[in-house]
Amino acid sequence: MSSALPRTERAAQRRISTALFLAGFATFSLIYCTQPLLPEFSTEFGIDPATSSLALSLTTGCLAFSILAAGALSEAVGRRGLMFVSMVGAALLNLVSAMAPSWELLLIARACEGLVLGGVPAVAMAYLAEEMPAGRLGRAMGLYVGGTAFGGMIGRVAIGALTEATSWRIALGSMAAVDLVVAFGFLALAPASRNFVRRPGLNPALHLAAWATHLRHRELPFLFLTGFLSMGAFVTIYNYAGYRLLAAPYSLSQAQIGLIFLTYIFGILASSSAGSLADRMGRPPVVITGVAVMLTGMLATLSSALWLIIGGIAVITVGFFMVHSVASGWVGRLASTNRSHAASLYLLSYYVGSSVMGSLGGWFWHEGAWPAVIVFCATLTLCVCAIALWLRRAGRG
């Protein structure tokens, strides 16, 4: 075999990894770019904070719903094209949000944005599992998850800074423009699918059977549960850390608290590293290590020292992205067929965990403040460890 072929193959793999990093960035920057703008919406449209939060919760709620449908649709229309159309459509809808003359139109645009964006996360995992060799899948999945972390961070931090310098409408419009460019960068880099087998038509019975098969799988439901539990713990930490740090003795401003999202940088690095480690060491040991890192960070946040609290949140972020990047790649490895259906079930569990456990964590905050939140999150995280240990004993790493 000539040496040119391996070089060509390595170049293709690098292009795929970079393209999926861009896809992750676009998706999560568009989802979370309204989070720092909620007070601006209250002022602009004369609404209360709970109503303002719909600009984010409608997007994530519609995203969770659309993931299942998008995974099924990709079996008929293909992976790469659907991801590109989803990114372009969502960026254009973000532009509509920036120009919306009324609150109702802004909410409609944000809800549609969530529906359209489902075409990226549900399909990205399947695309990687089909196009990357098993020995490189973990690293590629880690880079994709790193892109989601970077996008989530930029969508929260940069938008807030740009809004302060200009206006929230210019900030949202700028994000739309950036993500349009990112979408075309994805299209230029991502090779056409080589291992995808198209299934013409949209047969509901076929998709229901595929989902049912994955749910009856011996190990896959435990990975779906891993996404549910780990994301639930992670989102709960970020949801209620702000309440703690706004109050005395810290009395941080909203802008200062927003800077805490810069800890996502550590998540980006952890995602790529964890994927590479999983390729070499196996997946259960890396998930267990991620759990240990999360627990260490949780203990640190129990301190009254501000630097330890923020440092602990950074450590939790590292541990979470280790777990998530490995678990999401693991799904594609175990699902030998209908990978997009398996990916959509994992992501559905992931976003439902964010919604359900994130809200349930509020009861613990109300009843026992931060220590109770940590007990709740630590319990969820220990359950993830138990799952990884069981999968290791089952020899499915």
How would you characterize this protein structure?
This protein has two domains: 8-189, Growth Hormone, Chain: A, CATH 1.20.1250.20; 214-397, Growth Hormone, Chain: A. Residues 1-5 have low confidence and may be disordered. The chain is globular and about 55 Å long. The chain has 397 residues and is mainly α. The chain starts with a helix and ends with a helix. The protein has 16 helices and no strands.
Produce a short descriptive summary.
The chain crosses the membrane at residues 20-38, 50-70, 82-101, 107-129, 141-162, 168-190, 222-241, 247-270, 282-300, 306-331, 343-364, 370-391. 83% of the residues lie in helices and 0% in strands.
Defining traits:
single chain; 397 residues; mainly alpha; Growth Hormone, Chain: A; 2 domains; 16 helices; 83% helix; disordered N terminus
Number of domains: 2
Report the CATH C-level class of the largest domain: Mainly Alpha
H/E topology pattern: HHHHHHHHHHHHHHHH
Tell me the CATH architecture of the largest domain. Up-down Bundle
Total count of helical runs of at least 4 residues: 16
Report the major sheet. Answer: none
Q: What share of the residues does DSSP label as strand, in percent?
A: under 5%
Secondary-structure blueprint:
Blueprint: H1 4-32, H2 38-45, H3 49-52, H4 54-77, H5 80-99, H6 103-117, H7 121-131, H8 134-165, H9 168-189, H10 204-216, H11 220-246, H12 254-258, H13 264-281, H14 283-301, H15 306-334, H16 339-393
Helix pairs in contact: 1-5, 1-7, 1-8, 1-9, 4-6, 4-16, 5-6, 5-9, 7-8, 7-15, 7-16, 8-9, 8-13, 8-15, 11-15, 11-16, 13-14, 13-15, 14-15, 14-16
